[in-house]
Batch of 3 targets.
Target 1
Amino acid sequence: MNIDKSEFARVLDVTEEHYRKLEAGATGLSADKILILYHTYGIDPTYLIAGVSSNIMDFNLEYYVANSSKEQRDQFFDRVLAYVAKLIK
C-alpha cells in the first residue's frame, strides 16, 4: 500500500516497536484495531484475522467468535450493535 510503518503505528495508536511486533505476528490485533485498519485503509478484516484475503461478505463470523477472547468478542459485538443502532435510526 506504500504506507510507512510509522503511519500505521500512529493510526493504531501504538509505538513503532509494538507495530513491528504486530506485523511479525508476535502479538495479535484486537478487534478495535482491526476495525480501525478496515475503516481507515479498507484492509480486509479476514486477511488480518486469517491471513487469507477474501471478499468482506465472506467473513467467517463463527470462526472469529470461536477464536476470540471474551474481551475481543464483547468489543466486536458492542461495535456491531452500535452500527445496527445507527442503521435503524
Target 2
Amino acid sequence: MCTSSRAAGLLTGLALALGAVFTAPAAHADIPACTNLVQGAGVEVSDAVRAACTQGVHNDLQGCVSGLTGAGVPGGAANGACRLAANPPR
C-alpha cells in the first residue's frame, strides 16, 4: 500500500472518530434526568415538559424553569430538574 493511501486512510479514520466524539453527547442525553425529577414531583411528563427539559439541556435555565412551572411542576422541582438537564451528575 502506498504511503499516501495509508495516510489518507488514517486521516479518514481519525476524522470519523473525532466526529463521533463531538456528536456523541446529544441533547437528549440529559432529558431523562430532568423528566425523572418531574415525575418524582408528581407531574405527568408531557410534550411541554420534554420541551422545557430540552431548553435546560441547551443551558436556557430560565426558559426551562418557566416551561416546567407552566406545566405544573413546583418551583423547587423545576429548578432542580433544569439544573440536572444542564449539568448532569457524573
Target 3
Amino acid sequence: MEQHNSVRVEVKTEYIAHQSAPDEDRYLFSYTITIINLGDESITLKSRHWIITDANGKKTEVQGAGVVGETPNIQPNTAYQYSSGTVLDTPLGFMEGRYLMETDQGRSFYVPINAFRLAVPGMIH
C-alpha cells in the first residue's frame, strides 16, 4: 500500500491536570488532530492505528474503525478536526501511528502520523 503526500496531519496536545492523579500514576492528555486534504480527490478516514509509549517504555496499541466514532469524508482543500485523549502511567510519553484512507474511487493508502510528545508542563526544559 502506498504512502500519500497530499494529506497533512497537525497535532496539538494538552495535559489535563484536573483529571489526572499523579500520586496514582495517572496522567491524562488530550490531543487535537487536524487532517488536511491537500489533494484533488475526496478521501474517507477508514481506520486508525496508534502506538502509545510511556516513559517506562510500556507500549499500548490502539486500532479501530474511524476516529471518535466517525469515518469522516474530507473534501479536497478542506480539513477535519477532532479531539481525543489517552491516559499514561508516567508524566511523559509519545504517540505515533497512521490512518488508513480511501479515495472515492476505492484506492486505499496510509497516512503516517509522526511521533508527538505528551508531557506534563515543566517536565521538559
